[in-house]
Design brief:
It contains seven helices and 20 strands. With about 400 residues, it is of the alpha+beta class. It folds into two domains: about 130 residues, no CATH class; about 190 residues, no CATH class. Strands 1, 2, 7, 8, 9, 12, 13, 14 and 15 form a nine-stranded antiparallel β-sheet that branches. The chain has a five-stranded mixed beta barrel with strand order 4-10-11-17-16. It has a two-stranded antiparallel ribbon with strand order 5-6.
Length: about 400
């Protein structure tokens, strides 16, 4: 069953499908497949939690090692052989050997990176579904809505539920790309590819001082439009914008060259990765003029955030795995609404407690060889969720 409506540029229709309510054996089969997925997710959580602790501690030790060895450079325009092979710290303005060009649009800029961003006006499908039970059948009501939007990727309209009237072109006539300067320096030092990759603070380039490059291209604001009427675009029309990162020369419209702070190993006139005794690599670049202490503080903060993010991901993976593995108990009693709801609450509480305890034990095991006292404390904390769960179980009444 389908219903259609058209409201301006936005169109929508509703489709309702139905299927017989699955029997007990079919639901049990689906639950068994979910248990296998849950088991794999459960094992993956142990790997993520355990390796994350080793990574975090190794990174912290490497940063402490780097802070104790780094040599600040007073003059970035002269290369001292005394610092050959050592970890150095320097700040200065970026410079490149020649500007980056986009001859198709008559544009050039003295920067480390220049990005051409192309978007096409296309139909986009949105889907909103809900399921309900009626007359012993499972019915699914899906509302499909279509709207025209600017998208940087080609939207395949063949996958739409209703392609008629919502057909998109299969490719763009103009492609996006990013140009990178082959030689980037700070003073007399040449930055490695890894350091150049860290220059990614892209800003949109103003096109107000440029003229239309071709007769079929119209400039509107900070975009070049391949359209007969940019104010009323049609499906298939293009618009192009530009972004730059790492301004490497004084520009009358953009200002002075960007300043960066670098910590890396000096090898001749190049700045390359520094391998620490802990097994990590130090190759750091931040925008702005920062002291040694500020750089390593930022790196420690970044390591802490990454560590907690992976801990949360590991706990969530373990919770999902336990929930899927214990789902079979819910399936066995889903014929009885009251019992089903109680079992569902109990299984969720069980998954939270067990996931918390096992996560803490895994983290403690990861710390065992590095910080044994902290590992012991975490192991003791791992027992707390289980004790809390046991304390909520009512004692048996004496007869």
């Amino acid at each position: 069953f389908q219903q259609f409506s058209d409201t301006g540029s936005r169109r929508e229709h509703v489709k309702i499908t139905s299927e017989p309510k699955p029997g007990f054996l079919e639901r049990l089969s689906e639950t068994s497949a979910g248990m296998l997925i849950g088991f794999v997710t459960f094992l993956l959580a142990f790997y993520v939690l355990f390796t994350n602790e080793g990574r975090a501690l190794r990174t912290a030790k490497s940063l402490d090692e780097g802070l104790s060895l780094v040599v600040p450079l007073d003059n970035i325009h002269s290369i001292s052989q005394q610092n050959e092979g050592t970890l150095v710290h320097l700040s200065g303005a970026l410079s490149t050997s020649k500007p980056l060009f986009d001859p198709s649009y008559g544009l050039s800029i003295q920067a480390v990176k220049l990005k051409r961003h192309v978007e096409m006006y296309q139909w986009v499908e949105y889907e909103d579904s809900k399921e309900y039970e009626e007359n012993g059948e499972i019915k699914k009501e899906t509302k499909y809505s279509y709207n025209t939007e600017w998208k940087s990727e080609v939207v395949n309209s063949r996958n739409f539920d209703r392609e008629i009237g919502h057909k998109n072109p299969s490719a763009m006539a103009v492609e996006s790309f990013t140009a990178v300067s082959p030689n980037v320096q700070v003073g007399s030092f040449v930055l490695s590819k890894g350091l150049v990759d860290r220059i990614d603070d892209f800003k949109q380039l103003s096109l107000s001082h440029l003229e239309d490059p071709h007769a079929d291209v119209t400039r509107g604001g900070d975009y070049f439009y391949h359209s007969d009427n940019p104010r009323r675009p049609e499906v298939g029309d293009l618009r192009v914008s530009f972004f730059y990162a790492g301004l490497s020369g004084d520009d009358p419209h953009l200002g002075t060259a960007a300043t960066v702070t670098v910590i890396a190993r000096q090898r001749g006139d190049q700045l390359v990765p520094y391998h620490t005794k802990s097994g990590d690599v130090l190759e750091i670049l931040f925008p702005g003029d920062l002291s040694v202490e500020e750089v390593f503080q930022k790196e420690h903060e970044s390591n802490t955030m990454k560590t907690w993010a992976l801990r949360a991901a590991g706990w969530l993976s373990m919770f999902v795995g336990i929930s899927l593995m214990t789902r079979i108990f819910y399936t066995l009693v889903d014929w009885f609404p009251v019992v089903r709801d109680l079992v569902n609450i109990g299984l969720k509480a069980f998954a939270v407690c067990v996931a918390s305890s096992l996560s803490l034990l895994t983290i403690a095991l990861g710390w065992l060889f590095y910080r044994p006292l902290w590992a012991l404390l975490l192991a003791l904390l791992a027992v707390v969720p289980i004790l809390v769960a046991r304390s909520r179980v009512p004692p048996k009444k004496q007869q």
